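To the team - 5,10-Methenyltetrahydrofolate complex, inputs and output below.
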Amino acid sequence: MVAELIKGNEIAQAKRNEMKEEVRKLKEGGIVPGLVVIIVGEDPASLSYVRGKTKACKQVGIDGKLIELAEETTEEKLLAIIEQYNNDEACHGILVQLPLPKHISDTSVIEAISPEKDVDGFHPINIGRMMTGQRAFLPCTPFGIVEMVKAKNIQIEGKHVVVIGRSNIVGKPVGQLFLNENATVTYCHSRTPNMKEITRQADILIVAVGKKEFIGKDYIKPGAVVIDVGINRKEDGKLTGDVVFEEAEEIASYLTPVPKGVGPMTITMLLQNTILSAKWSHQIEGVH
Ligand SMILES: Nc1nc(=O)c2c([nH]1)NC[C@@H]1CN(c3ccc(C(=O)N[C@@H](CCC(=O)O)C(=O)O)cc3)C=[N+]21
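Output:
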């Protein structure tokens, strides 16, 4: 079997074209969705990611503002800037790029963002709302993964989803979202014995371990759907995932590539959340 690729970049582009139209209509009603992206420090990879985010905003007509702060910026100063945008009606979404410098607490920063502008879906209020099935901003990478599986008309209800990884940003919430879609969900992680025995039961295997080409074909049930969330750089500078692509391709039914898989979906769901936030702030209903 040769797996069919789930091309995140194409699904993302189709969604962005629809969003363009949605934003155009909102603007006719005087609403301009606005996103503020804040980065602290000069890490080149992080800078390139946030520039990608503001470029994507422009593509769909969202007013994207990038704030670049020096590495030495104090936590107090960052919190003051967040407070300024919490109180700015033209701003519907605030994203502070992670990781932050060591002298700034991620938790303090995430909790300082108004839950109504937390388009990353990282605030404990949004995590709680997601868990209890209330209206919430869903975290972008997990949300994008569900959307790309749905775009391929792959059934989720009743399927066994195995998540490898338990980060707050990807692993934990992606399992929750698939549970909300009526899947049976199992989590594996670094302390799981006999991991292969579990992952080989997965109908849908979601790999978010952060280790280059860690998952080979021996972890995959023939015909499984494999979602590779990893982004790692190889010695030759090329990007690769947490899955050995050529091996997974031989055995899976569907597979996401890296790059052009989950990454572009993450950014697209950020745009989606910003548009939703603009609607919700004007009491316009909008669904995920
Ligand atoms: N507050 C916050 N929110 C985030 O959503 C967030 C963050 N911090 N910190 C870093 C991670 C990483 N992340 C990516 C999003 C898209 C691509 C992406 O589009 N990647 C392209 C390739 C890009 C390239 O060529 O380097 C692809 O996979 O095709 C990658 C990485 C969002 N993150």
